[in-house]
From TrEMBL:
Location of the region described as Disordered in the Swiss-Prot/TrEMBL record: 38-59
Skewed-composition ranges (Basic and acidic residues): 39-49
Range of residues in the leader sequence: 1-25
Name this protein carries in UniProt: Uncharacterized protein LOC111304612 isoform X1
Family matches, as Gene3D superfamilies: Spore Coat Polysaccharide Biosynthesis Protein SpsA, Chain A
Protein species of origin: Durio zibethinus (Durian)
Gene: LOC111304612
Keywords of the record: Signal
Annotated InterPro entries: Nucleotide-diphossugar_trans (IPR029044)
Residue ranges that the Swiss-Prot or TrEMBL entry lists as coiled coil: none
């Protein structure tokens, strides 16, 4: 369950007072000045033991780190998985160089729902006692949330410089982002923490309705939409999805997980009239199922349950297709739905338990769910200084088992 809360947990957990983690002494720690090179073998072993202990321990005892901690790179020796030596990647060639990504093809816009809450902790409690430091910057709780949004934007602008970013937000929220190719689009609604996931689908639907109206007035270049959580890093050109697969209306990402086979953090919509219309109808169905069946999970995960319900309840749908990480198209409720494997399009560092086979060489999106927000910022800092996306992926791969302070 906890594998899927994503940026929601980030938003929801911040208001809770959590104890600032102590620096733990001993071999477990690798400070940033030690990150280049492999962890010594005995450290690696202890890290594994430690992690399994943490996994079984009650949550309040989990150790959360306020600095990078590297462990072994999963997927070692497996073909088509990223191989690393320290934080040096041994495979480098698979990613398209953004300078070569042409502006021909159709336009892409990323759409994310983001809102800021007045955080009483920032003002009531001594602010400096709640600061976390990443690199040379310190952040209060709400500043962390903005920092993640900024890094989300940064990755897109570096990896897909031709694309646009649209932030759907509460008209009440005082969000100001002034950057080229970034638009803040207020949409009326109920953005309280308890209803945010429900509101998110509503905002998506409203946005698609507005696009539909605009489309009938506009001719010319098509813009495809990719609706995502804001705790993702775009690694490779996602425009390829729309070129490689010509016949889908919307795309979802799946994994081999019985209860939650679909992640709601990535939904691509073809920007044609038909694509937008059918995606809108599909999301309306998801919203209806959410409101009628899963309000007990309104705070989080309800959208994913509803998404899975809509897909699985389709009479001819075979759930076994989720067990193989291979894209496929299926007609559901009048829409052509492209199912893309999470392994490539929504790769998540493992959260403690579970099988973990490393990182595919063609990974296109990394999703920093749960206590991985620090890693997202650290990864960006690392990338900014090394300018090597593959090395950065090694950092993420090796650090992905660690639970961080935010
Ligand atoms: C990291 O570097 C700092 C200053 O450069 C040094 O004082 C510290 O001992 C180093 N940490 C470790 C664990 O080696
Ligand atoms: C990735 O790099 C490793 C180590 O150099 C190499 O053995 C492997 O064949 C490479 N994989 C691919 C698909 O090129
Ligand atoms: C947030 O707080 C500011 C003052 O600190 C206030 O002006 C604003 O109305 C508040 N916003 C919401 C949504 O409560
Ligand atoms: C706030 O906390 C910091 C360190 O925790 C301390 O140095 C500072 O004096 C405190 N300020 C106030 C106003 O209490
Ligand atoms: C702090 O980090 C920023 C961004 O990485 C960098 O431009 C700046 O030079 C750094 N400042 C110091 C004092 O290291
Ligand atoms: C919520 O309701 C659904 C459908 O009735 C049920 O399957 C699920 O177990 C419930 N979840 C919780 C957390 O109560």
């Amino acid at each position: 369950m906890k594998a899927c809360v994503g940026w929601r947990r980030f938003l929801f957990c911040f208001p809770l007072i959590f104890i600032l983690p102590y620096l733990f002494s001993g071999v477990l720690e690798l400070h940033q000045n030690q990150t280049v090179g492999d962890a010594p073998k005995e450290n690696t072993k202890k890290l594994d033991d430690q992690n399994s202990a943490v996994r079984d321990a009650p949550k309040k005892n989990s150790k959360k780190f306020d600095h990078l901690v590297l462990g072994p790179a999963a997927g070692e020796g497996l073909p088509n998985r990223l191989q690393c030596q320290g934080v040096k990647a041994l495979n480098k060639t698979q990613f398209s160089n953004p300078s070569h990504v042409s502006g021909v093809g159709d336009g892409i816009a990323f759409v994310t729902v983001f809102t800021i809450y007045n955080n009483s902790l920032d003002t009531l409690v001594n602010r400096s006692s709640n600061l976390v430091t990443v690199g040379n910057a310190s952040y209060s709780k709400s500043e962390r949330s903005m920092a993640i949004l900024n890094v989300f934007i940064n990755f897109i602008q570096v990896r897909m410089p031709q694309s646009n970013i649209i932030i759907l937000t509460d008209p009440e929220s005082d969000l100001s982002v002034h950057q080229n190719r970034v638009t803040v689009h207020p949409i009326q609604g109920e953005y309280s923490r308890d209803k945010l996931m429900l509101q998110r689908i509503r905002s998506y639907i409203t946005f698609l309705e507005i696009r539909l109206e605009k489309l009938s007035q506009e001719l010319g270049r098509i813009t495809h939409f990719i609706f995502t959580d804001s705790d993702i890093a775009v690694i490779d050109d996602l425009g390829q999805i729309f070129e490689m697969h010509q016949n889908f209306h919307l795309a979802l990402t799946f994994r081999n997980n019985k209860e939650q086979p679909l992640n709601s953090g990535f939904i691509a919509v073809r920007g044609t009239r038909d694509g937008i219309l059918r995606a809108k109808i599909f999301l309306q169905k998801v919203l209806e199922v959410y409101s009628s069946r899963y309000m007990n999970a309104s705070r989080m995960l309800g959208d994913q349950f509803a998404l899975a319900w809509v897909v699985k309840s389709h009479p001819s749908f075979n759930g076994k297709r989720f067990s193989k990480a291979q894209a496929f198209i299926k007609e559901i409720g009048g829409a052509s739905v492209l199912f893309l494997p999470c392994a490539t399009y929504n790769w998540t560092p493992p959260e403690g338990a579970g099988q973990f086979h490393g990182m595919p060489l063609d990974v296109k999106v990394v999703h920093f769910k749960g206590s991985r927000k620090r890693l997202m910022l650290e990864a960006w800092n690392f990338f900014s200084s090394s300018a090597d996306i593959s090395d950065m992926l090694c950092l993420i791969l090796k650090s992905g088992r660690t639970k961080y302070d935010f």
